[in-house]
Amino acid sequence: MKHLAFLLLIGVAALIEAKTQELTVKGIVACEKRRTDGVLVELWAKDSVDPADLLASVHSSNSGQFTLKGTKDEADEIYPILRFTHNCQAKPGCTRIQNYDVPMTYNNEVMMNDMGFFTLDVVVHTEKEKC
């Protein structure tokens, strides 16, 4: 019982220490040197305690652009990840899923990054294919 009370106390302390962290990520996706619309772009946040959390998602525009904004209440630092789900150079009937770590800069306590162009043709080591 003492152990349960101790764990509960630690959990409450972590919630008290949690702070809201804001993230903004933008960029452009391209396939075969052409800007690509309809790509599912997701912003995930991982931390040292729990599994990654989905913060925001959007489909790229006709010009391949995307902007994602998310917030997360967390006591420790979060590590943003962008996930792209697309069919650029995928096998027929399949989709490719690519994850990228997002280096962040801070501007008035808000984490921001303009990622520039993502070339979806490139195979990354963390890539998965779903058929």
Give a description of the structure.
By secondary structure, the chain is mostly beta strands. 12% of the residues lie in helices and 53% in strands. The protein contains 1 helix and 10 strands, in the order αββββββββββ. It has one helix spanning 2-17; strands at 19-31, 34-35, 40-46, 53-59, 65-74, 79-86, 95-101, 105-107, 110-119, 128-130. The strands form 2 sheets. Strands 1, 2, 5, 8 and 9 form a 5-stranded mixed sheet that branches. The termini are far apart. The model is unreliable at 5-9 (pLDDT under 50).
Short description:
The protein has 131 residues and is mostly beta strands.
Class from secondary-structure proportions? mainly beta
Summarize the helix and strand pattern as letters.
Answer: HEEEEEEEEEE
Return Rg in Å: 18 Å
Mean pLDDT: 85
Per DSSP E runs of 2 or more residues, the count of β-strands stands at: 10
Poorly predicted regions? 5-9
Shape: globular
SS element count, helices = 1
Distance between the termini: 49 Å
Report the helical percentage. Answer: 10-25%
Q: How does the major sheet shape up?
A: 5 strands, mixed
Relative strand content: over 45%
List the helices and strands and how they pair.
Blueprint: H1 2-17, E1 19-31, E2 34-35, E3 40-46, E4 53-59, E5 65-74, E6 79-86, E7 95-101, E8 105-107, E9 110-119, E10 128-130
Parallel strand pairs: 1-9
Antiparallel strand pairs: 1-2, 1-5, 3-4, 3-6, 6-7, 7-10, 8-9
